[in-house]
Amino acid sequence: MAHLSIPLPARRSIHFDVSGFNGLIRLLTNRRVQLALLILGPILFLTIFRPYLPLPGPLETNLRAMTKPPSFEHLFGTDRMGRDLLSRTLAGVQISMFVGFAVALLSLTVGLVMGTLAGFFGGVIDRVMMTITDIFLAFPSLLLAIGLVSVMGTGMLPVVLAISLSDVPRFIRLQRSLVLTLRSRAYIDAARTVKASQLWLMSRHIVPNTIAPLLVAASIAAANAILVEAGLSFLGLGIMPPAPSLGNLIRDGQTYLEQAWWISTLPGTVILLIAISLHFLSDGIRQVLDPRSRK
Amino acid sequence: MNELRPIRNTLLDVRDLHTHFLTDTGTVKAVNGVSFEINRGERVAIVGESGSGKSAMAMSLLRLLAYPGKIVSGEINLEGRDLNRMSERQLNGIRGREVGTIFQDPMSSLDPVMKISHQMIPPIMRHLGIPEDHARAQAIGWLDRVGIPDAVRRIEAYPFEMSGGMRQRVMIAMALSCKPRLVIADEPTTALDVTIQAQIVELLKELTAETGAAMIFITHDLGLVARFAHKVGVMYAGKLVEFGPVRDIFANPRHPYTQSLLDTIPPVDQPERRRLAQIPGFPPDMKLAIVGCAFKERCAGAHRQCFEAAPEPTPRGPGHAAACWLPEGLGSGRQVERALIPPIEPAGEAGEDRVVVEINDLHKHFTGRSTLPWRKPSAVRAVNGISLRIRKGETLGIVGESGCGKSTVARLLLGLDPATSGDIFIDGMAQMVFQDPSSSFNPKMTLSNIIQEPLVVTGWGTRTEREARVRELLGQVGLDESYMHRYPSQLSGGQRQRVAIARALALKPSVVVADEPTSALDVSVRAQIINLLVDLKQQLRVSFVFISHDLLTVSYISDKIAVMYLGEVVEYGPADEVFRNPAHPYTQALISAVPIPDPVAEEARTAKPLSGELPSPLNLPAGCSFASRCPKATDYCRSHKMVLKPYSKTRETACHYAS
Q: Residue B280 — very low, low, confident or very high, per pLDDT cuts 50/70/90?
């Protein structure tokens, strides 16, 4: 036998693989991801376990404690109807998180499917889809969302749909460009020489290699959606009072900013923290996924 | 070369140079104590595989290293001045003025948004202190000397308006324009085609001889070294393991690495084919501390001393030093283990074998969009009427320069692109092995899944049967079973190419199309892959189509050769015959352009390199497509097309004047 067996070499370039357990470890050991989790973790914990915490309900009024500054009893203070602001803020975070997650998931899914089809098949499908996305991209996203909400009405579902609709074209564009670079890879050609079906090519070779950048984009989209939702609610177009949302809490407080600073400021700080930590998270994911950014 | 050189003739004296790359994951000791001297007007070649530190060394000489790279210690004495201790400002007076540089990639080393004139004239003005009109005249003069036609006009061109060969000429003109005493060329011809490479090397040789400039030429191609250099330094793992006059290095190498490297090259003259020598294993990881000789794990002559201390370069002859404990290196152990490859059956017997691939009058035209709707769009005729037959167990080599259509033929054979016209009949299945092992696998799939994919897609066997087949295939390509669950990124280039071959063989295809399967690999690994292909060919009787621009490798591995030029086969026949006695002028030029790793043969070579470049495939000439570059061309050639016609019993050629 003329072959020789070659000893295993030292690992040279470490290509990072998200799907594995290894990926999770690397993600959790990344500084930025850790920082993001340090901020997001407690907020999420409190939000999820709010019903079990010794807090008054978010809609519960208390006429003996109106417009009280932060104290041990009410950590975030109370508003002019005596409602506990911590409870209301956490309820608002719940809505924000839901909106962020729903928008990210929705635009990721739609973008993934349509972008893959456009990039992979090209031709007429591609041209039609690109024309539509270009039209959508021509509008500023907040303006588009405002327009859609005023057509569809207020409430959670219209807000999610409105924000997603302005995000989807970006995801389609991103996915399409990723697919275009992957489409000419040698392993696609190799699979085609054994007559692999189009579905096989897309599901085995193309989509798995686009997930990583899409996740980065999705976490940015989530942060953005939270801010847009807050903005819409602030303008009175999103979640309607008395239901609390971070946006309408700030709106409520702005008229009393001089007498009761805490009503607007504390929910505002929470939005800021969530948005920053989601950006850290996406930055961390990108760093972990992209071997070039590691130094 | 025979004149006596007094000591003060030394131009550059490098002493104990150490360059490290400080990365987060560790310090890469890229250059690890290199010392050498260069005399005035001397051409020194530094050879080594990728990762040997040759480029880092060359860049260190002018302190052109990018951020994580740092010269840790050492002296770089250029005529007595230590460049390593100079300020950046002083050094800028030397860069370009006294030392010129030519980089590997002519596509990226010229500024794409600046005209050639703007890139050439200011440095000349600054370095030589002359007014602009003089500088311009000089720049034009240099462009003219490096063979750029119509230099007065072309100096106002942008880089994108020029071909790769032309840009490299511009780089050479720029490097030489300030009359430097030393030129550092880092793989200046690697990105170019053989015939262009031959032109550029010839040009560099002439111009440095003319201006008296010394030269450091970094390369991995031993053949080029033989053609070009006065002295050769062989680098391995950041050290110069051997340094000496070119004839000594080739005729009498003393370091086992040099010896093995020379043996891995397919021989030029091959009355009988022997297996290529191969260097087992891989170069060491430069992040780890190396105890003893860096080459010991791959060396057949390694003994205890090699594991304890690293040998220093010691003299082996006049101007010849090698860093090995053994005075003769591998010595007489060099020629062992090179089994004879049984010769292929003569054509008569092979004729009884069935034809597995038949290509008839194949055309592939790529049609662009026309700018004006009523105008007929222009078409690139990538493949312009070729007919070939491949028998079972036969290897067909397709050679030609880039743009000749050889890769298009491969894609058509594999059914990846539809042909414009013509037929392809394949008895069985065609599979492929790709050129670039770094992008040819899905990074998210394990090797087991990669090799299995053809089986899964075609619904072959059960899961356990498929896994058994994967084990069998891994064994056939010489990989351990433990590789099954690894990812492609964990393998070296050579190992990936083995996996690619295993995968291609999974469905027992009748023909495997290998498009430049070895061109991305290092010399020592290349021999391993070539030997593997030769073995598989013998064992499995599978046919191969071996596509490459590397003529030595193609002629070594192939039974038949088809030479392509601008989408046409210009010569076809048994590999040995075509290589030893080419009939078509293009084949002759191609073969004479191949650098041969033998300085004596290279010196005796008289043929001039082919002039000119490939015409645009957008408007092919009416007559013979090679007429524009052919030394024998007549008016008849320019107006009359020649088709492939029998030249001898076994060969066909497309030339009016072949016989």
A: confident
B160 burial level (CB within 10 Å; 0-12, 13-18, 19+) = exposed
Q: What is the pLDDT of residue A1?
A: 33
Q: How far apart are CA B526 and CA B54, in angstroms?
A: 19
Quote the CA–CA distance of B92 and B228 in Å, as a whole number: 29
Shortest alpha-carbon distance between residue B68 and chain A (Å): 9
Q: Is A8 part of the contact surface with chain B (CB cutoff 8 Å)?
A: yes
Write down the pLDDT at residue A295. Answer: 37
- Residue B452 falls within a domain, yes or no? no
Q: Is A3 on the interface with B (CB under 8 A)?
A: yes
- Verify that B214 and B287 share a domain, yes or no: yes
Chain-chain contact of A194 with B281 (C-beta, under 8 angstroms)? no
B275 and B393 part of one domain: no
d(CA B364, CA B566): 12
- Asked whether residue B597 is assigned to any structural domain, the reply reads no
Domain count, chain B: 2
Share of chain B above pLDDT 90, in %: 16
Task: Give the range of the structural domain holding residue B247, as residue numbers without chain letter.
Answer: 7-98+180-331
Task: Give A290's pLDDT tier (boundaries 50, 70, 90).
Answer: low
Same domain, B220 and B366: no
Whether B489 and chain A come into contact, CB under 8 Å, resolves to yes
Q: Region B270-297: what's the mean pLDDT?
A: 78
The reply to whether B405 and B554 lie within a common domain is yes
Domains of chain A: 78-289 (1.10.3720.10)
Angstrom distance (rounded) from CA B193 to CA B195:
6
- Which of A194, A196, A209 lies nearest to residue B444, judging by beta carbons? A209
Structure confidence at residue B346 as a pLDDT band (50, 70, 90): very low
Looking at the domain assignment, is residue B61 inside a domain?
yes
Would you call B24 an interface residue with chain A, using a CB distance cutoff of 8 Å? yes
From the list A5, A15, A192, the residue facing B489 with the nearest CB is A15
Q: Is the pLDDT of residue B3 over 60?
A: no
User: What span, in angstroms and rounded, lies between the C-alpha atoms of B271 and B550?
Assistant: 20
User: 3-state class of A142 per DSSP?
Assistant: helix
> pTM score, two decimals?
0.81
Sheet holding B652-653, edge to edge: B430-433, B511-515, B543-548, B395-399, B560-565, B568-574, B652-653, B645-646
- Choose the final residue of a domain: B300, B331, B362: B331
**Beta-carbon separation of B444 and A4 below 8 A:** no
Distance from CA of B436 to the nearest CA of A (A): 8
Residues 193-232 of A with CB under 8 A from B: 193-197, 200, 204-205, 208-209
Residue B260 forms part of a structural domain: yes
